[in-house]
Amino acid sequence: MVRFDRIYSYDDMFQYLQELAGRFGSFTILRMIGESHDERLIPMLRVGTGAKVLLCTAGIHGRESLNPTVLLRIMEDYCTAYEKKETVGGYDAYTLLNRYSICFIPLANPDGYEIAVRGFSAVRNPLLRRLCKMRRIPSAEWKGNARGIDINRNFPCMSYTQQLLSEFPASEQETLTLMRVMSDYDTVGYLDFHSRGELLYYYRHAMPDTYNQSCRRLAEYLSALCGYRLGLPEEEFPTGSAGGNSVNFYSEHIQQPAVTVETVPDSCGFPLPLEQCERVYDQVRRLPLGVLACSAAASRNIRRLRDRRVTFC
User: Fold this and answer.
1) Burial level of 78, CB count in 10 A (0-12/13-18/19+)?
2) Are 106 and 71 in contact (CB under 8 A)?
3) Which residues 6+ apart lie within 8 Å of 252 measured at CB?
4) Residue 312: Cβ within 10 Å count
5) Has domain 10-312 been given CATH number 1.25.40.10?
6) Domain ranges of the chain
7) Do the Cβ atoms of 157 and 206 come closer than 8 Å?
């Protein structure tokens, strides 16, 4: 079982994902979806047998080191519940994961994660290591990848603003990897796990009211599950340099509901304290299944309306 009293390295997590895929091979697929600039593979574990997919990412910001471990534990819970036909927090995991699948990407930025938990010595490429150190940012507070680029400001969407001369929209391999996954699968939604604040961001300035209303309804449902408050529309971009993130790209190009889940209290500093892991896990472990339950309910409502029209005709 994934433990919350230790820090898992990238290699630890990679090995554990391989073990999960081996133990639950009849309904999981481990896929290498890309490679980081420091030549680390980016793994994705697909859990379930349904064609339609929920995408869950964590670790886009290196310093947000608790969410990858929490997501790993959630994957383990869902796999065990599916195999034993048990519920998770009241949700029928077996039924939902036969109808849908969940694509978990717990380390979308493996280089940044390794820098945050192990220091700059974890960067294999000596040139990239030197460039990172020149930024004069403590390793525990490192958000970017091994090129020093914030992945969550690098997506080609309406809110993109150039941060550094060395980057442009989708300049980073990690960004392109997530963009490919978003376009390759028939997704019903996207949850992106970040830290801090214990809140849910759902509003997209570039999207129409109908989209934002749909996202708000989902966010309200998830808020009831985890206890996090909803972020206000004006909080989506607190500064002019906060755009270009993954949920905005997904919303604009895929146009399915997307919610940013901000875990841990705002008072937590970096490195994030390990004792928060259990708390975060208890709060968010039901959220992916909750999204699938909402999607299933929406599909049933659409079928009822369609059947009603047929009857009236």
Assistant:
1) buried
2) yes
3) 157, 158, 204, 206, 207
4) 6
5) no
6) 10-312
7) yes
Cα–Cα distances in angstroms (integers) from residue 84 to residues 28, 87, 94, 100, in the given order: 15, 9, 8, 17
Do 75 and 150 meet the contact criterion of CB atoms below 8 Å apart?
no
Mean pLDDT of 112-129: 98
Convert the pLDDT of each residue in 26-36 to its tens digit.
999 999 999 99
Condensed to tens digits (0 to 9), the pLDDT of residues 72-101 reads 999 999 999 999 999 999 999 999 999 999
- Beta strand 199-201 with 258-263 is antiparallel
- For residue 139, the one-letter residue type is S
Whole-prediction pTM = 0.95
Closest of 51, 29, 161, 55 to residue 108, by C-alpha: 55
pLDDT given for residue 312 in this prediction: 47
Edge-first strand listing for the sheet containing 187-195: 28-35, 41-48, 100-105, 52-58, 187-195, 258-263, 199-201, 229-230
